[in-house]
Design a protein that fits this description.
A nine-stranded antiparallel beta sheet has the order 10-11-12-13-27-23-22-17-20. Strands 16-25-24-21-18-19 form a six-stranded antiparallel beta sheet, with no helix packed on it. A four-stranded antiparallel beta sheet has the order 1-2-3-4, with no helix packed on it. With about 325 residues, the protein is mainly β. The protein is built from three helices and 27 strands. β7 and β8 (about 75-80) form a beta hairpin. The radius of gyration is 20 Å and the shape is globular. The chain has one domain (about 15-330): Beta-galactosidase, Chain A, domain 5 (Distorted Sandwich), CATH 2.70.98.
């Protein structure tokens, strides 16, 4: 459980481990840099001295995704955020992903980090953010708390941005299940212009099917809920690999160390953003799939769609996690 030091691009490193699961949480952005089980990486992370690529593992608050022109209104006030995606003239991914978070509490299997967001011209309200990252027999778990420290109600949204992969399985080969019955329709700036049902279309992943050459950077809504109100996205190995494992057959081709990885989220998250990494460059191009639980879709500050309004002193809480399904669970 080491600390790399402040010269690393991602700041201090906090490693947690239990039951064969290990994760690394970083100071810059308070996000997740690595997650592995039995020495196998399921998170497509980055090196400690590397600038976080493609928002990998970052916490996105007080809004996820994009806000058109960075402009929105609250009551009779017109507010302007910095355009952090200048090529598309958008404000993207919130205000806490490039700031230093501080250590709140730490044990062998968990770490809690925090950041106090000060008021700024584009978002003139103070928030207190806390995240408890933990690992155990069921995989990785993240528990988030955000408290409104301002004297008035504030608009709020939340997401995280992990990239997932299965060893030795390409994005094209992966089967994907997304429990979303609708998707946002987007314009050329990747901003919402409508909603469409996915049934009978190329975007219907409500039952597992291969990604193939599909190019995805979409928010899926109208989520099919589990009994506890939550939902989950699953990435699984190709059907042929599963069949060989189930039959116990030997084969010359390398087999994946896991047959599936599940990203689950509780009832607070009603949207899933799926991104196949097509706009990433170099080795990261279509190397993994970003699976992002979101409380609201893009541009919610303007549309109001599923926007959370936090009253003074109110705390929002949400949880999500990653659970690999190992070969042993299928092959016995």
């Amino acid at each position: 459980m080491g600390n790399v030091g402040n010269r690393a691009a991602s700041g201090a490193q906090w490693t947690i481990a239990a039951d064969g699961h290990e994760a690394v949480v970083v100071e810059v952005g308070g996000g997740l840099r690595a997650y592995r089980h039995d020495e196998v990486d399921y998170l497509d992370g980055y090196e400690a001295d590397e600038l976080c690529p493609g928002s990998a593992g970052q916490v996105l608050a007080p809004w996820p995704n994009r806000i058109r022109d960075g402009a929105y209104t609250v009551g009779d006030r017109s507010l302007q955020l910095n355009l952090t995606e200048p090529a598309r003239h958008n404000a993207i991914h919130g205000l806490v992903n490039w700031v230093p978070w501080h250590l709140v509490e730490r044990s062998a299997e968990s770490v809690t980090v925090g950041y106090n967001l000060p008021p700024s011209p584009g978002y003139p309200w103070a928030l207190r953010l806390r995240t408890r990252w933990s690992v155990g027999a069921d995989g990785l778990r993240a528990e988030h708390e955000v408290t409104n420290l301002a004297g008035e109600a504030v608009p709020f949204g939340f997401s995280v941005h992990p990239y997932l992969r299965l060893p030795k399985v390409s994005v094209d080969e992966l089967s994907l299940r997304v429990p979303g019955r609708s998707r946002m329709l987007l314009d050329g700036r990747l901003l919402p212009i409508g909603v469409a049902e996915v049934t009978g279309t190329e975007y219907d992943f409500t039952k597992p099917r291969p990604i193939g050459d599909a190019v995805l950077d979409l928010a899926f809504g109208d989520v099919v809920r589990d009994a506890d109100g939550g939902s989950a996205v699953t990435l699984s190995a190709p059907e042929g690999s599963l069949r060989r494992l189930q039959l116990g057959a030997s084969d010359a081709a390398p087999r994946p160390e896991a047959v599936a990885v599940h990203v689950w989220a509780d009832r607070e998250f009603g949207w899933w953003q799926i991104f196949t990494g097509d706009t990433l460059t170099g080795e990261r191009h279509r190397r993994s799939v970003a699976v992002e639980p979101m409380t609201c879709p893009a541009d919610a500050f303007r549309s109001g769609r599923d926007l959370i309004v936090l009253d003074p002193g109110e705390t929002w809480r949400g949880a999500w996690g990653i659970r690999p399904e190992p070969v042993a669970a299928v092959a016995g």
